[in-house]
Amino acid sequence: MKHTLDTVTQVCPFPLVEAKQAMAGLALGDELVIDFDCTQATDALPRWAAENGYPVTHFDRVGDAAWTITVQKA
User: Fold this and answer.
1) Which domains does the chain have, with CATH numbers?
2) Model confidence pLDDT, tens digit, residues 57-69
3) 8, 12, 26, 33: which is the annotated catalytic residue?
């Protein structure tokens, strides 16, 4: 099941903080789609996913300064 977390307009580290909280409530196998526009999160979110063993199934730039990343709870 996919869940969406919209953190657009939030400054770092809030996209990561909210992603951690949202991921805690997901079931194994669920995916969290995180929409964000904080440049620092382009490094912080994939690093957090890797450190926690969460596969990144999608990562794309969706605007001049906006991105979307999908992380699976494994």
Assistant:
1) 2-72 (3.30.110.40)
2) 999 999 999 999 9
3) 12
